[in-house]
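Re-run with default settings, no changes from the original entry. Doing this only to confirm the output is reproducible before filing.
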Amino acid sequence: MSSIADRAQKYVEVTEELTGEGILVQQDERRRFARRPARWNTVVTTRKKEVLHCKTRDVSERGTSICSPYDFNMHATIRVDIEVYYKGMKKSLSALGEVRHSAVAADGFIIGIYFKDATETTIRFLRSYANSRI
């Protein structure tokens, strides 16, 4: 029979740390795609046609993390419209996304969105940006 300390240590090893920025992901969770910080205005539209104004925190070729005043249900399908302003360039990107994670933050929620459907132009731009090629 294991001691209480042994059982407690087991739970500590699988616990995520809660900070002012949200929940930190454990080191053994690796991302498939490179990501890069980006603070771009974003409009999120729900299936019920509710519109929310948010900001991206970071982007990758297949998703984004946004700061939102509203929490979304897991696996909710949303439309994401991002207004990119970068090095004098202005671009409008759109994608159909799925909410993959949500965490409480100091000023609302941090929502992780996976792009289920995006144009090749959107994916190409985000891939170049996330991998610091532009």
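DSSP finds two helices and nine strands in the chain. The longest helix spans residues 120-130.
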